[in-house]
Every structure is written in C-alpha cells, then in structure tokens.
Amino acid sequence: MDRHGRRLGIALAAALPAAFLAIFFAWPVGSILARGLLVDGAVDLSGVTETLGSSRTRRVVGQTLAQSVAGTTLAVLLGLPGAYLLYRCNFPGRGAVRALVTVPFVLPTVVVGVAFRSLLVDGGPLAFLDADGTFGAVVAALVFFNYAVVVRTVGAMWAHLDPRSEQAARALGASPARAFWEVTLPALAPAIASAASLVFLFCATAFGTVLVLGGPAYGTVETEIWVQTTQFLDLRTAAVLSTVQLVVVTASLALSGWSRRRRETALRVQPDTETARPVRRADLPAVLVTAAVVVGLLTPLTSLLVGSLRTPTGFGLGNFANLSTTGSGDSAGGGLGSGLEVSVWQAALNSLRIAVDATWIAMLVGVLICLLVSRRPRRPAARRALGVFDAAFMLPLGVSAVTVGFGFLITLDRPPLDLRSSVVLVPIAQAVVAVPLVVRTLLPVLRSIDERLREAAAVLGAGPVRVFATVDLPVLGRSLGLAVGFAFAVSLGEFGATSFLARPDRPTLPVVIFRLIGRPGADNLGMALAASVVLATMTTIVIGLAERLRVQSAAAEL
Amino acid sequence: MTTTIRMRPRRSARTSAVLAASALALTACSVIGGGDDAGTSTGGASSTTSDQAGGKVVLVTHDSFAVDKKLMADFEQESGLTVQTRAPGDAGTLVNQLVLTKDSPLGDAVFGIDNSFASRALEADVLQPYASPEASDRADELAVDDSDRLTAVDYGDVCINVDRTWFAERDIPEPQTLEDLTDPAYEDLLVVTNPATSSPGLSFLLATVGAFGEDGWRDYWAALRDNGVKVSDGWSDAYFVDFSGSQGKGPRPIVLSYASSPPAEASPKADQAPTRALLDTCFRQVEYAGVIAGAENPEGAQRLIDFMLSTRFQESIPEKMYMYPVNEKADLPAAWARFGPLSDDPFEVSADEIDANRREWIEQWTDTVVG
Questions:
Q1: pLDDT tens readout for residues A51-87
Q2: Do A215 and B15 touch (CB under 8 A)?
Q3: Are B33 and A357 in contact (CB < 8 Å)?
Q4: Of the candidates A216, A517, A545, which has its C-beta nearest B370's C-beta?
Q5: How close does chain B come to A338, measured CA to CA in Å?
Q6: Does ipTM come in above 0.90?
Q7: What is the pTM of this model?
Q8: DSSP string, A446-457
C-alpha cells in the first residue's frame, strides 16, 4: 500500500463522520444560533451583555455547574469500584448485574421522577430523609442515570489491563492500595477522564430530572433554554445561553482531553478473558460499595415495578394486559381511553427498529472516528487537529435537544434534504447522541494498543485492513459489544430529540410513556409504569445479547 | 445468536463471519426506512403530484393529539385525502415552530394552538382565513377574533381538584373558591405546577390574573406561598406524586388539574367521583385549528378542519384528548356528563393580553413564589 492510497483512505475515513456531524449537528445548531445572534446580517451582541449581566442567568449557570460537578464526582467515585467488580472480576450473575445497572440510563426521566419522588414525598418510604425538592435529590438522580456510563466506560478499559503489571508491583512489595494507586489508576486515567467528561455533559444538559426532583428553584441553563425557546420564542436569549452552554462544554472537553493526553500511553492490553478473576476477600470494599449502589438503583426501580403491578382491583398483571390496547374503544372502564394511536407493544417495536438503525449508524460513524483519532501522528499540529476532531463529536451531548430540534426544522426543510417529516431523521438524531458514547468506549482501548504492533504487522506485509483485523479487532472485540449495547440503550431511551421528530403514528416507547403519564386515571399511570418496565426489560435483554456478541468475537480471535 | 462464551476457535475467518453476520442481521432488521413508509418519507416536493383525488394533507399538531385510527381511515377514504400528522412538541413549541418555518411551512393544517398562544400565531401571520360550514355557534363564541384564521375545535377548564374522601374523613369542609385556598385551614394542602414549564400551571396563573386583576394577583400568590403551596414541575408529578386522590396517594388533597379529571377517577358504577373540580377556580383553555399560510394543499386542509368539527370526530375528543367538543350535537361520554361538569363562569384573560404579558407574568410569579 503506497502513501497516496493510505492518505486517500484516511481522508475518506474522516470525510464520512465529518459530513455526518456537519449536516446533522453543526448546520442546524449554527443556523438557530445565527437567528438569535444576527440582526440584519451583523452580529448583535447587545443581548449577550444583557443576558449575561442578569442575576438570574448567573444563578442558573452556577446551579448548573454545581449540580454537574457534584453529580460527576459522585458518579465517578461510586462507579470505579463497580467497574472493577463487574469487568475485572468473575462471579455468578455478573452479566445480569451489568445489564441491570444500565437500565436507569434508558428510563424516561418523567417516570423516574415520579418513582423517585414517590419514595421521598411526605408519607413515602424514604420521607425520613427529608430530601424532596433538595439539591441532594437532584444529585442522587443524576448519579442514578449516569452510574452506568462510568461503569461501562471504565470497565471496558479495565477488562483489558494486563494484570501482570500490578502483580509485579505487588511482588516487589507494594501494598494492594499502593499498587492500585501507582500502577492501575494511572493506566485507567484516560478511561476515567472519558467517563467523567461524558457524565459531566449528561449532567450539564439534564432537563427533566432536575426539574422534577428539584422543583422550580433548581433551574439550569438547559431548562432556561427550553423555556426561552418554546415558551417565549426569545431566540436571542436562548442563543446566548446556548453559547454559554457550548463554552462550558468545550472547556470541560478541553480539560478532560488534556488530562487524557497526559496519561494516555500504550499499555499492555489483553483480551479480557485472560484478566477476569474470582472475587477475593480483598475485594470486600468494592463489593460493599457496589452492593450499596445497586440497592440504591434498585429502590426506585422496585417502586416502579410495584406500581406497574398495582391495579384498581388489587395487585395483578392488568396493566400489562392493557398494553396491547390503545385505550378508548377497547378499554373496559367508563369509556375513558389512554389517548394513544398505537398500542404500547407497537411502540416498543418502533423503538426497537429505530434503535437498530440508530445503532448501526452510530457504530459506523463512531468506529471511523476512533480509527482516525487513535492514530498518533508525529507532527504536533496533526495531533492537535485530531484532538479537535475528537472533541467536535462530543459536542452534541452538550447542546440542548430543543436547540437541535428547532435547528433541524429551519435547515433540513428543503430538497434535497427535506427530512422534517422523514422517519429517517429519528434514528439519525439518536445516532448523533450515541456516537460520543461509542467513541468514548472504544477510543481508550484502541489508543492503548502499542503502535509498534501495527507497524510490525505492516512490515510483515499486512495491508491496513489486515492490520485492523489482526491487531485492533481482537482487542476491540469486547468493547465493540459494549459500544453496540450502549448505542442501542441510548436510542431506546432518547426522548429530547425524538419527541421533536417522532411522528404520532410511529411513536417510540418513551414518547408513549410520556403521554400515558400525562393523563389522569389509575389505568393510565399503571400502563405508563408497566410500559416503563417493558422498556427496562428490553434494555436488559438487548444489552445482555450485545455483550455476548462481543465476547464471542473477541474470543474467536485467539 | 450462538453463545459459546468461553470457546476459542482458531481462525480469524470466524470473527469476520460473526461480525459480518451481525452487521447483516442489523441492517436486515432495519425496516424503518423502507416498507410502507417509502412513499411518505420523501416529503414535500413529490406530494402534490400524487394522482389521488385529494392528495396528501399534512396536519401539524401538538404531542397530546390523538385520533381514532378507524375514524381517520374513514375520512381518508371518503375524501380521497391521505392525512399525515406531525407533532413536534407541546402547544407552545407548536406555535413557535410555525412562526420559525413561515417561509417553508411545516404542513397544511394545524390543530392545537390554544388561547394562550393564539395571538402569537395571529400576529406572525402564519395562518390563512377559513370559515368552516361545520363550525357551531359555540365555536363562534370561542373565536379569538373575527378574521376566521383560527377555528375553535375543543375546550376545557383547568381547575383546582380536591380529594373528597380526604376531607370527608377529617370532617373538614372542602374549599370552594380561590380565596379559600389562602385560609390557614388549608395550610400545606395545595399543590400546583410551575407556569414556566407546565401548561396547566400557566392557565392557573392566568386564572388568578383574571380573578384578582393585574394589580392583585401577586399578592394572592404571596398569600398562597405563605399558606404553604407546593410547586411541582409538571402535571404528572403533582397529580400522581403529591395528590392524595390519585393512584399515587400522595400527602396533599388539593391539586391543580382539569375539570375532566374527576371522571377518570370514578369507577363506572359509582354515584359520585372520589375527586371534584372546584368550578369557581377555573381558567378556560380553547384549542384552535387553522389552515397554514402557504399550505401546499389548502383545500385538503379545509376538508380536514371540517372533519375535525364533524359530530363523529367531536364525539371522540373526550376519550382521545380529554377536552370537551365545541359541537353541541356531540354526545359526551356518560362519565363526563355525570362527573365532569364545566365551569359556568371561568376566569378569562384575553389572548392579546396573555401574549403581551406572558414573560413578565411568569418572571414575576417566579420572583414571588420561588424567590
């Protein structure tokens, strides 16, 4: 393979993701920001000083930062022992626990809000905590949603670390704590930084969670953008706030990128089947922390499950039986329907189909980005360019769904890209959100592969495809499955962008749940909770399957 | 999918096979782009070339819209129209999107613009006049102005609801009026929703503006605050978590909801619903339909509006959208007729006033209640 061929390959690999991001993110968001900030073609900054000067804006920005930092810190601290236990150790039921911790990540915030608050409200089982409507409740909910992000992102890396480095340190007399501190932790640092930046972005743009758990006093930049855009149509203020959001997000990405680069080195990596070991006595602290977290995750989930089994005539499966109806004609009660156009099962099927599309799009784009960004060019300028390229794909997580949604409407509205009514826009919008997760899962692993392995393979005559298949793929195998599961979960749970784009005759499961819980009557609440249980079950199964897919392809290489 | 987890075949061809197979499986499942949707997903340009009599008509609406599938199919067959719906958000989002896409309209007809956003739509001139022959007298009464650009389709009342059982068990009289809610006897019993993020919340704020005037409503809210009003974010949250009269069995027996909520709590055979709407605390919400300016198929949009005013569609509104039909000939479901009366004299604020003051009122409300 000559140099030109290689260059062409790289250019092509860069062009597809770049075009994807440009069309489905940069252009729509840029256009809606321009509407707010440009007056007669000139940038009008009067709104900027006005908005930034107001005490309300300052309070909201401070609130956002405080919640995000607290949520991220706690999620990382609790997630590390979880990653260790679930990806480094072997125990019966490990797969089930792995899938279980991912469930909160996909549940609709309005349902989780109701489940959480039912526990915390006066007279609820956890009323003694006196946490309803407090900062603590908001942070707890943020951790609830994002714990899986840390466990999976860090776990993907941890599973590959060669245990011999740590063993060597131990043999040389280091205590377990010291060996962890000086050998394992530095090796994990890039993955931890990845996870932290993801969680920070999710926390900084959290919408429903914050409002439901915190109440009106806990407005964030995200909720403020939503109000300004959908209620006041004040695009100028919204654009200023979106810009503030972008600045915060970019700063956090730069910070995490910097801490990653300081640490990222080629590591001894191994297919994971070599590294897992049984749980030992020394693992007790990790076991205790993780058990406590799992109980914490299970509490709202259990309250959900119990709620889904409660019917007006006592406990039973009535709510689940109702899922095949659309309310109205086929409902038994006094002629009161749930106001759905399709049954919940139909919506579940829609969700699955859309998720399949979103997943392959996200994987295609994500893997290409990873292959490109994991390269280590010698020129600093080229390295910096790659860093920017990498960070650009994280931005969609940091921009509010309402901004993207309105942006779609005013850009993708003319041929050849009149996609506003198209069903393909839903999986694409979800893929935009899933790509960063795919990249953050795969990249730390790919980067840890020693470049010399690839060079050696190339010297021995392997073409780029063969190098990828024999060097990268075996190590990636496990993480590919993780990434697929992750992308699928994101798509299943995505609500913000989807609610803008999904057509009423083709709703996804979260959209239907949102509708059901917006109507009075025990039947509707029961169906909403039952539908959430279905969503949780679907997620568990899909993630379980994705992990198996992975193990096999990884193992097959050796 | 085979699952031989710890097996280790030797050849790399196996990997490629597994990956290729899974990739194939994935794409083969991706039915969403194809099938019955191929025709509709191409959108705009090709739509008018359809050789069906009426062509395609795109209805833009909000996320609470629902219609009986069979009714819609009947309408499509009779009219020769193909109806496609888009629901890009709540009522506020809907109007704002119409305004933003004025140069390249989202569709032909719109349904779901309510009286709190009506003026914005009229001012931005995103609708064209159409006087439907099906419009009833009540629809005319509920009109925003006489330009015929917005036709009332349904309406309802946002009212305070009380849990009758809670009050009966404690032998405390139920509150009746807005003033009662500031009475210390009802301290810490009321939960409402945030007007900035919830549409009933805004309606209730407007009810208090209507009741106490521009100068008095803030004092009223200060009194509510001092009497321990709880503000939840959204309706679901307030009704299912905080309210004692719903399935959630929360701690507070007075909640902001709708006049149509009690029927949903009543069992079909009961004489009385366990909850009741206080009809002296209501604000009337009216939902309008219209033909979008610049519509590709304005005739189709007009037929669709006629259909939405027809008795058969109007009779499906309570079950599907929890609102009351404007058509006097439409029968209400039995439970609604018995347990869900509307207010005789709801509080009113004109659409113009709402549009002019929405932001100021919400900000003042936040300062007063949240601090």
A1: 787 888 888 889 899 999 999 999 999 999 999 999 8
A2: no
A3: yes
A4: A216
A5: 7
A6: no
A7: 0.84
A8: HHTS-HHHHHHH
